[in-house]
Amino acid sequence: MELGPDIAAIVTGGASGLGHATASALRAAGVKVALFDKNEEIGPDAAAAIGATYCAVDVMDQASVDAGFASARAANGQERILVNCAGGSFGPHKTVARSKETGAIEPYPIDKYIKTIELNLIASFRCIVGAAAGMMTLEPLAGGERGAIVNTASVAGEEGQMGQVAYASAKAGVIGMTLPIARDLMSEGIRINTILPGIFDTPLLARAKPQVKAALAASVPFPKRLGAAPEYAALAVEMIRNGYFNGEDVRLDGAIRMQPR
After folding, report:
1. Which residue of the set 54, 167, 232, 244 is catalytic?
2. Architecture of domain 8-252
3. Most CB contacts within 10 A, which of 39, 44, 130, 195?
């Protein structure tokens, strides 16, 4: 897809981290961008800084997502690009744990598991459905393409660590839905790919102590550092630009393979 001012994009989780870096890269290519983010404290300024449109959206709520699509399309027109970066974790917990203090058996809180699946997997699918339905109303570009979608999974989706069962299974679901969606949408000229980031220097790690971040960086085979958000953005943009990139799940991780803990 040739990027420029006649193309509109939506980036979920676009107010910070990987999402904001991707939105910035798309804006640098001239694309009209709308940021979906529920953080209204930073969202408007993050959008203004790059000349994007901010839409206060909770991706876990269907009505909020529908309103976000309507707002983004009113500002920029029907999007041809969706990048799903919204996601996160509600904390570690083993499937069943044993208290070190009392020895009591502690099953995984099912409500926390469900919320993790809803945020990372169902919310991504919700936005894919909304964007793809809109893209199908557009006339194809050169080569028959109507749109391109990029999802964010995680290396945890393939190598989840102890205490990561909810997050790992949610991200495995994102990986698993990529090829079936590519097949579902192939006759409409809509491509979809997924990035599996390794350990990236994002706001989620900002609160970590320097020694913790140094240890994480040292665990990466090469280069021995945390991933940078613009590196994620560069791959996302390539997936959008390259019309033969479809149905793929691509690791971006410095060759790391996660250990059990």
Report:
1. 167
2. 3-Layer(aba) Sandwich (3.40)
3. 195
